[in-house]
Amino acid sequence: MAGRRSYASWLKFAVLTVFLVLFIAPFVFLLLNSFKENNAITSNPMALPAGLDFANYKVAIDKMGYLTAFWNTLAITTASVLLISLFAAMTAHYFVRNPTRGNQYTFLIMVASMIIPFQAIMIPLVKIYGSLGMLNNKGSLIYMYLGFGSSLAVFIYHGFVKSIPAELEEAAMIDGCTRTQTFFRIVFPVLTPTTATIAILNVLWIWNDFLLPSLILVNPEQRTLPLSTYNFYGTYTVDYGPLMAGLVLTILPIIVVYLFGQKYIIQGVMQGSIK
Amino acid sequence: MIAEKGAWNRLRTRLLFTGPTLLAFLTVMIVPFAYGIYLTFTNWDGIATTHTLVGWRNYGEVFRDRVFWKSFGLTLKYVLFSVVLINGIAFLLAYALTRGLRGQSVFRAGFFVPNLVGGIVLGFIWQFIFSKVLVYVGTKADIPILGASWLADPDKAFWSLVIVTVWQYAGYMMVIFIAGLMNVPGDILEAASIDGARGWTTLRKMILPLMVPSFIVTIFLSLQRCFMVYDVNLSLTKGGPFKSTEFVSMHVYEKAFLSRDYGVGQAEAFVLFLLVAAITLLQVYFSKKLEVEA
User: Fold this and answer.
1) In A, residues 5-44, which contact B (CB 8 Å cutoff)?
2) How far is CA B105 from CA A24, A170, B98, B166, in A?
3) Could you say which of A11, A112, A245, B95 would form a disulfide bridge with A60 (CB–CB 3.0 to 4.6 Å)?
């Protein structure tokens, strides 16, 4: 019995391993070919590279404006995520502690709005912000991320704020804290695990987003990583080596973060889905 | 309820706590959404500063736009296969990876990896896999089905989009299923096994009914994401070959921003929103009826 069981679990382990290898294989081929010359890639895309040749990477960093795109993406993602977390937590807190009819309806409208896909909004969005002269500006993009991201964030925070006992805040206010101080000293620290969840979900979305920035940011100097990858691919289709290197460079930052924080990232996705 | 003294203080707190969020939400979501509905009744071309009201004409155009409906039908087929495969594979993975297998956290982390990367990049990676790596394997090992690039054939290009989508989202939905499976109470499974329920019966009669809430979430998310797919569509096939894999999101984009037919484009976007909202809400409504209490 014990032998049969371990045999079955060994089989399951083997099947899962094969499946995982197939799952990861595209990334492995990408990495291998990023070190090869175009001829070597086309003659045998499965062969190992002759050596660690970073020539393709030099071309890619140069031609796709990698560093600029990296800093743009980092700035936009960081600013948007900070603003979404802070403002959504404040709003959710206010809604929970002041459950007037108006606030409850506003909350319901925010929840319901999550069903509206971006494609239903993009055309008027471009028209409105275009006529205000607010396109091609990182600040506008960050503001839009706050608008698009706040519904889900308020929704998730709302569920967790409800579990904080109001007595905790009343005690702080009796001791002389203002409402704002209470929020920043008591409530926001207690919400840290939720903030981590929201930050993770939003980083995964904003870092990789393509359609919205492609409509807002037109100048090459403003481009984010997904945009510069797309443009690089469009203008540089003949030579596979630099293209592969460019893709590796685009993936690299988030993979590095994942290697250190994968436990938290997976937990964040779990928490975000339960609510 | 916590309240400050005086109307001015109350207003200040309200503005501070809800002002930024509500202003952004209102001006980025609600106003464009409402203005978009208005735009569907105009003939705006994207450049002119003026436009005139044309009544229901744009909606008439939408129903006559054969390409739109063809592309909607194609998207529907794509959504159907993708959603079923994503959820099936994700559930099997989650089920296999919540039973104390050796190294299961490594497996979980590995299957999640495609979700770290945006659709544009994933599409480009697979474009290389389909057009170079698989063709190489096909010619060397003499496998006729891989002999030519899948992306050059309309039918196979469709399936390559399904494959990439399933690969992209299976790991994400797996994580949601794992969260659900970990909440299935151990004592009722123990009770079932004492009563003689074996693996398959336990799965079908106990676990699946208790997992309905997770399925509601994963099906909702996969439906919405697949219907609105744009990135992977753009970078993997660009709608080709010969516009044969142009999904509805890409069609709306082209109608508005490339053909400069904003009124009709927005009307199509709005019709699409209504259809997708109806489908996802019906799914949630009917799945809720399957929910059971543990």
Assistant:
1) 9, 12-13, 16, 19-20, 23-24, 26-27, 29-30, 33, 41-42, 44
2) 15, 42, 9, 21
3) A245
